[in-house]
Amino acid sequence: MKLKNIKLFAFASLAFTIISCSDDNDSTMVPITPNFSGTYVQQDQMGRPAINTVFVNSDKKDEFNTTIPSEQGAAFQAMFETNLKALSPAYANMGDKNALGLDTAAFSGVLATDVLSVSLDGTTTFYDGTNVLTGRALADDVITVELLLIFGGEDFTENPSLSDDHVDANDKNFLSSFPYLASPW
Fold first, then answer.
1. Are 33 and 16 in contact (CB under 8 A)?
2. Which residues form the signal peptide (predicted)?
3. What does R_g of the chain's alpha carbons equal in angstroms?
4. Are 134 and 117 in contact (CB under 8 A)?
5. Other residues' Cβ atoms within 10 Å of the Cβ of residue 30
6. Where do the domains of the chain lie?
7. How many whole angstroms separate alpha carbon 67 and alpha carbon 116?
């Protein structure tokens, strides 16, 4: 926890250091740093977009958002499984699985631990046809992948009207260098 606080402080200090000119408009620069005294509390957690929004019951949002990921599976898997079965006809029958070969219990366990997994020695992607949940590239269509895994069944063909958000491109292309995200319109 202390290392996390140190990293947060270092990042915030770097990100929020403000340089301002003195009142007489000379070239003297004065750094101003923010005050980080006080108590900070995590308010939201969303390793995988939309999963928290869809699968966590409204009366459990605060509890989920403040539970550390290593404890989320045990604490919330049953709720995720109930909600997955209620939401998706692809899991209507005993033994139904998704394209990853996961049944409701296994898949809801993956979802309930709301972290973004990252492959350190392979392809970084949410899904590229071969690799699944090994990270996230900017161009990955995360919502469509999630819809496919939730509604698409064993081979992504079940429930086609529910398995795609039909947002096939960004409004602007990504940049080829840092910061990679397109400028706001």
1. yes
2. 1-22
3. 21
4. yes
5. 9
6. 2-32, 51-162
7. 15
The span from the CA of 143 to the CA of 154, in Å, is: 18
DSSP-derived 3-state class of residue 132: strand
Distance between CA atoms of residues 67 and 76, nearest Å: 10
The Cα 113–Cα 47 span in angstroms is 9
Show the tokens assigned to 31. Answer: 């750094």
- In angstroms, rounded to a whole number, what is the distance separating the alpha carbons of residues 145 and 134? 13
Tokens linked to 134: 């090994």
Q: How many CB atoms lie within 10 A of CB 4?
A: 8
Distance of CA 153 to the CA centre of its chain: 22
Q: What is the pLDDT of residues 166-177, one digit of tens each?
A: 998 888 889 989
Contact between residue 134 and residue 123 where contact means Cβ atoms under 8 Å apart: yes
Q: Give me the amino acid identity at 28.
A: T
Looking up tokens 């923010």 gives 34
Q: Model confidence over 43-85: pLDDT tens digits?
A: 788 888 899 999 999 999 999 999 999 999 999 999 999 999 9
